[in-house]
Amino acid sequence: DVLKGLLGSADPEWYLEIGSRNGRSLSQSTQNYIAIDPQFDLQYHVINSAKKMFFFQQTSDDFFSSKFLQNNGIKPGVSFIDGMHLFEFALRDFINCEATMESSGLICLHDVCPYNSPQTTRDISYMTELKRPWTGDVWKLVVILQRYRPDLKIDILKASSTGFACVSNLDANNTDLIDKYDSILEQFIDLTFEEYNPESYYASFKLQDPAEYLQSLR
User: Fold this and answer.
1) Which residues are bridge partners to 80 per DSSP?
2) Of 67, 120, 162, 209, which is most buried, counting CB atoms within 10 Å of its CB?
3) pTM score, whole prediction
């Protein structure tokens, strides 16, 4: 499991997860953690050897607005964004995560490598009613970061089944994304995967072997 390997290699004091839902990915952590989901449905063993575990059954926007991290002097070493699969939500989550982390931290994104165009739809009924794997348009966040934050290091891993992005070289003081948030939304909201061109998207980065990437963190 890529996430388990990342947490083992980075070994952060605090791990933050957005979109815990059934607890499957959360159960991979042995670090102190903060789990955020508007509707938990825990089905995995999530109580581990950590000293501190916090669950926030609310939206990530509300969580970050509460300033819980700042008020308690917590700076997550690894943050995992796997909440609502619409790019504007993932973008806000990225902005808020980066603002609370050290430059040595790592932000991970799921579902950045869709394997067909239908699953990139913004229509959530594709998942809820048709019961099909749904990446939404989270792929756009990779394009946005490449375009507006060239200072970041973005590594895309071959992870089953829809890819895993690891973003490093963070800068908590950089406000480029929040300053341009409205214009980014206007530019990307109606853009489809087909219109952008899947070949151009996959040509913009090199898919990396997870084992090799994890080795580089050690």
Assistant:
1) 17, 108
2) 120
3) 0.96
